[in-house]
Amino acid sequence: MLTTSQIARAFSPLFPGATPHVQQVFAGNINTIVHVAVDDHSYGLRVRTQEQVYRYEPNLIKEAFVLWLMRHATSGRCDAEAAHAFARLTAAQRGLVTEHSEGLPVVRYYDWSRTALPYPYCIYDWIDGVPLWECPHERLYALAGQTLARIHRVQFAAFYADFLAVGVHPVSWPERYRVALDKELTAARVHLARTLVEELHALAVPSSIATAPCLVHNDFAPGNILVRDGDIAAVIDWDNAVIDVPHLDFVKMKYWTAKNATDELAHEPALFDAFVDGYGPTGRDITESPLFRLYEVLWLLRVFNFERSKEESGLARAPGYPAAAVYERYLMARLHSSRA
Question: Model's pTM, two decimal places?
Fold first, then answer.
């Protein structure tokens, strides 16, 4: 739990001497979100408090990097330029933000130096809105698809293992996929049946693909898409952002399309179809491709391991999210349908 003095220290670079007033606190899978009022303005303080289950670059606030990409890298592949910008951001560790981009939260400050707080954090203008799953209308899901298409316009000349490798250490797509799959299989083998693990090891991974690498949100799901006044207000929570193929951003929307009658996230065909069509002409090609099926398998393994890790750490499952056993059933169904 963050203390009042910690919150004041976090805000001190923006508002020296001011007293932040906490309005609400939200605990997520990875982050604690604090809604704060300062001088009649509302801000969000996002703090990565559950670092033990965070699976990406541990000392970065991805919004700082994504904002640069959305502002500078939409006119072509500029991996080398991005590498220089990312190196500057990484070295600085903290900074005030003056540039903003449509569809992203208006970030004011980021800090992963662990001096003010023992965790990485950022401060952004509070966004009044509700998660997309609270507005299950096909028109809004189509707008979410359009929003995702704009994100995917940021393309790269090569694939990279993480943001710190951009423009420096490219990897081939088969290598990237196989490393990611093997990592998840290593974690999952103690929980899954031996025959299922063997099937997963035997997956046919193509030696090359024609799809260009792009900026991938990697947590593009209704809980991170905020709706206000009948429109998409912002896409939040960029902690998991990677350089990969667009297919990855469709998987969560398929399995977590909306909440069902028992208030649990599940697939909803009509809403998912609206989302895919909203993305544009290539949406159907993506979701009907063998490559999409490979990313379904990878994501199902990943989220299965995530939930298992939380169980073993004694952390409660977030309300509305399926248990690990549900993803195991999905995984088996996906493998069997691929063979049919």
Answer: 0.93
